[in-house]
Amino acid sequence: MRSRIGSCLLLVALAVIPQTLRAQKKATYWLTTPDKSSLLQLQKTPLNFTEPSGSNPTINVDDKQTFQTMDGFGFALTGGSAQLIMRMDPAKRAALLQELFTDSGNNISVSYLRVSIGSSDMNDHVYSYDDLPEGQTDPDMAKFSLAPDQKDVIPVLKQILAINPRIKILGSPWSAPLWMKTTGVAKGGVLKPECFAAYATYFVKYIQGMKAEGIPIDAITIQNEPLNEKNTPSMVMLAPEEADFIKNDLGPDFAKAGIKTKIVLYDHNLDHPAYPLSILRDPAANKYVDGTGFHLYGGTVDAMTEVHNAFPDKNLYFTEQSVTEDRGSGTMDIADPVAKIIIGVSRNWSRNILLWNLAADPQFGPHTNDGGCTGCQGALTIDGDHVARDLAYYTIAHASKFVPPGSVRIGSSDLNTLPNVAFKTAAGREVIIVANPGDSSQTFNVQYHNRAFTAVLSAGAVATYIW
How far apart are CA 59 and CA 452, in angstroms? Predict the structure, then answer.
């Protein structure tokens, strides 16, 4: 009788303990340190959840607070990146793509890519899909052709999609075909008003052409950096022009063609949130718009929340940021970009994060002349078949490897000394990314459901914790 009573009491005691806490007694974590002694390395000793105690700073993770659903993390697959990858030995190329786009072992599970519609400044030459001799026009896009992408971009994308068919792809143009522009040259200029309809047809042909190749384009932006006329190629498009183009040409053409590809505004720095807000306030344009894309070369990241608060039914995307390191220093300042971009951008409602760009050669090429980026370091430095993994690689990997598409950002304490962001995955796991941008080691607690583990993060280090 006594043993039965004891068993019953034990069962009652267990019943009042949440099932999640019985199953989640340890957190594993992956660490990157600035001295490179640990590079996205799984640490051997898990961290135990215990009763909260001590006076350490505490990050409280609250899964009852939910925010945006994540679409993914990744890079721009520029034409130059694709060229370098396609020149690799086929077996080594295949191994690299497996590392980048699968989630097993030490692979980093990149889930989102950005491609240029036509060339970007990280191509070895300028092109569009409807280049004509000077003086000629093609308003019906009869000469439209994806041929310039058939050598590198399309084959790489097909290999990637064979590995991960669910990867999301964003397309962004750096310029319209030159015959559509007021200047007729690659650098700067604006789209002629009489070419708005032809340019909308250009987008339709692009999306249909890529679909025919087996490459779905999930979203497009109207113009990369529409307020920047210094790149080669580039094109200025002010907010009223973008609004007119969307509501009168692109939106109706997409609807007529049955295209579901999302239309994303702006695609430029956070110092001009008035640009997308002015378009979103136009009901005729707003109905075709999925959301707004931002870069962080200017402005502050809380401008994303400003736009979200004004139009909470529209999505936010982070479409570009270059992250570079001093190769000669022997150290990797990873805490800063993780804190500012991975953590800061996620905490301000972005559904994705894309860095610029996937790969470059040791001389920061290929790039265009007189307006190409001469200092854009890739996440990978590819020199023939040799691949080096740089700061941007580890910055994204600390999120992409652990936060798959469909994960939801959840609440976590906003500590200035320990920037962090937390997610719940679709599989029910909790993930928190923590950076220590300070100059001394920090000991802290992570609390979840009235239990906590204690962690130590050295100066300049980043860790992703999972339970």
Answer: 9
- % of the chain surpassing 90 pLDDT: 92
Query: Stretch 75-92: mean pLDDT, rounded?
Result: 98
Cβ 352 vs Cβ 366: under 8 Å: no
pLDDT per residue over 232-255, tens digit each? 999 999 999 999 999 999 999 999
Same fold, 20-67+411-466 and 71-405: no
CA angle 358, 188, 135 (to 5 degrees): 115
Please give the structure tokens belonging to residue 245: 């183009």
Residue 327 has what pLDDT? 78
Tell me the CATH number of domain 71-405, given options 3.30.700.20, 3.20.20.80, 1.10.630.10, 3.30.930.10.
3.20.20.80
Residue by residue, DSSP assigns 62-78 as EEEEEEEEP-EEEEE--
DSSP 70: P
Q: Minimal CA–CA distance to 188: which of 232, 157, 142, 221? A: 232
Give just the sign of the alpha carbon dihedral 398, 403, 408, 412. Answer: negative
- The position carrying tokens 């992250």 is 323
The 3-state DSSP class for residue 167 equals coil
Domain 20-67+411-466: homologous superfamily in CATH: Golgi alpha-mannosidase II (2.60.40.1180)
Residues 62 and 354: their CA atoms lie apart, in Å, by: 26
Is the entire prediction scored with pTM above 0.90? yes
Q: What tokens does 417 get? A: 């000394």
Give residue-wise pLDDT tens across range 85-120. 999 999 999 999 999 999 988 999 999 999 999 999
The residue type at 457: L
CA angle 179, 183, 187 (to 5 degrees): 95
d(CA 53, CA 449): 14
pLDDT at 81: 98
**Which ranges of 48-144 does DSSP label H, i.e. alpha helix?**
79-86, 90-101
- Say whether 42 sits in a helix, a strand or coil: strand
Residue 22 pLDDT greater than 60, yes or no: no
- Angle at CA 108, nearest 5°, toward 331 and 34? 15
Domains of the chain, by residue range, sit at 20-67+411-466, 71-405
The residues pairing with 168 across neighbouring beta strands, listed in sequence order, are 112
Name, in order, each residue with C-beta under 8 angstroms of 2's C-beta and a sequence gap of 6 or more. none
Inter-axis angle of helices 153-163 and 79-86, nearest 10: 80
Compute CA distances 70 → 66, 116, 403, whole Å. 12, 22, 8
Residue with tokens 């992409």: 400
Task: Classify burial at 423, counting beta carbons within 10 Å of its beta carbon; exposed 0-12, middle 13-18, buried 19 or more.
Answer: buried
Helix (H, G, I), strand (E, B) or coil at 117: strand
